[in-house]
Amino acid sequence: MIHPSDHTMRDPELAEFRVEVRAFAAQLSDLLADSEEGIDRSRRILAARFDADLGALDYPIVDGGRDLDSRYVQIFQEEMVNAGAGDSTSSFGIGIDMCLPTIRDHGSAELRERFLRPGLRGDEIWCQLYSEPGAGSDLAGLTTSAHRDGNEWVVTGQKVWTSGASVADLGIILARTNWDVPKHAGISMLVVPMNQSGIEVRPLHQMTGVAHFNEVFLEEARLPAAWLVGTEGDGWRMAVALLSYERSSLGRGGGRQPVPVDRLLDLSRLTSRTRDPLVRQDLARLHSGSQIIQWLSKRPTIHPSILKLWRTRQGRDAAELAARLAFPGSPAWLGDTMGTTEPGRLIEPTADHWSYAICDSRALSLGGGTDEVQKNMLGERALGFPREPSSDRDRPFRFVPRNR
Ligand SMILES: Cc1cc2nc3c(=O)[nH]c(=O)nc-3n(C[C@H](O)[C@H](O)[C@H](O)COP(=O)(O)OP(=O)(O)OC[C@H]3O[C@@H](n4cnc5c(N)ncnc54)[C@H](O)[C@@H]3O)c2cc1C
Q1: H helices, E strands: number in the chain
Q2: Between 208 and which of 30, 223, 278, 359 could a Cys-Cys bridge form, CB atoms 3.0 to 4.6 Å apart?
Q3: Is 204 near ligand 1, meaning CB less than 6 Å away?
Q4: Ligand 1 center from residue 307 Cα (angstroms)
């Protein structure tokens, strides 16, 4: 149970808003009575939320929103968590937390009209087509290319690690549109429909057994010329804008999170290890870590890499303690017991929760930028250290040596 924040109790308009959200949350249990966890459930919640005028709280009125500030968003999230629907956006998070705010801030009126309402209402699922086999940390080195053909863009290349691509309707993609300028200057951001003959999605299975992400092959994939976010060649600025939404979504507790400390406490009770001094020490350290993460996430001015690094460390340490408690012999398990692979839906762990959590924790240090990259950013942008030496920053990308 999340208790209402003090300032939201004192302000009558905020208190009135909380009553509105509670009334909405009370109707949700009827609506969800016959729905199982997964995309269908999330979709129902999002549609009900949007139709109740609660789906675009901080969006401008012209875009179907209510132009409310972050205090209202916080109240909404608190009440949804208390109603047991706090995870309602999971499969839709890439769209709602990252792609749609970028389109809202930088897209043309046509793009905003076409994409914002259906995305927020849960009618369309998005994926983020950034990383490539040769461009992960060095994202600006991407080689997927796009060119104009009459009223369309035509895109060819390969993306990888694309979360949710197998169920996505739309992808926000970075592609090179000019090879004769330095690498950051020749990129554009486009919106590509995923269900077309020019796109093949191949699921990649992780060590959890689940295919969370995918390879995406684009062979002359097509999209309307107007589906360009920002202007041609300004894609790096758009990319950075979207990544800042990704980081703030992580800061608010979206996406993959460390195993909560109270679950570890339960596990230590279950395995009769509460008197073990080493376990107690680890639990105390993890409790402090989770407090620090909460406090950091309340400081909007802090560099987001600090929070990301803390969360990664917490996730790794929590998983290690879980492994010691749950599997004193070894963290081995048999085969495919951790997930189902039903076609057409994102895959959820169905059994052996602890094995899943332990194996999945390694992803924390990669998704959204690796630990080393976060440290580089802190060094260069927060501490003012000199930039890493680079031989390709100012060269036309066409002349940068690379694997073919
Ligand atoms: C669960 C998960 C979900 C993901 N979802 C998506 C998604 O939806 N869309 C998407 O586009 N991508 C996604 N990714 C990809 C993710 O963004 C990349 O894995 C990440 O940016 C690292 O890129 P890479 O895997 O190519 O590793 P590389 O960049 O090849 O890095 C390999 C190693 O070298 C280190 N390294 C690289 N450069 C430097 C440097 N300059 N200084 C010091 N060390 C360095 C890295 O830290 C790392 O340890 C996802 C990844 C994961 C794990």
Answers
A1: 13, 8
A2: 359
A3: no
A4: 18
Q: Please give the backbone phi and psi of residue 315, each rounded to the nearest 5 degrees, phi first.
A: -65, -40
What burial class does residue 95 get, using C-beta atoms within 10 Å of its C-beta: 0-12 exposed, 13-18 middle, 19+ buried? Answer: buried
- For residue range 198-237, what is the model confidence (pLDDT) as tens digits? 999 999 998 888 888 999 999 999 999 999 999 999 999 9
Where would I find the H helices in 11-108? Answer: 12-32, 39-51, 70-82, 93, 100-106
Note if 246 is an active site residue.
yes
Distance (Å) from CA 367 to ligand 1 centroid: 7
Give the residue among 194, 268, 190 at the shortest CA–CA distance from 233: 190
Within 8 A by CB and 6+ apart from 167, the residues are 39, 91, 125, 344, 345, 346
280 CB-near residues (< 8 Å, 6+ apart) = 274
Cα–Cα distance, 93 to 91 (Å, whole number): 6
Measuring CA to CA, how many Å separate 334 from each of 32, 207, 327, 328, 351?
Answer: 34, 12, 13, 16, 12
Residues for the chain: how many in total? Answer: 404
What structural domains and CATH numbers belong to the chain? 13-120 (1.10.540.10), 126-232 (2.40.110.10), 256-369 (no CATH)
State the CB neighbour count (10 A cutoff) for residue 240: 12
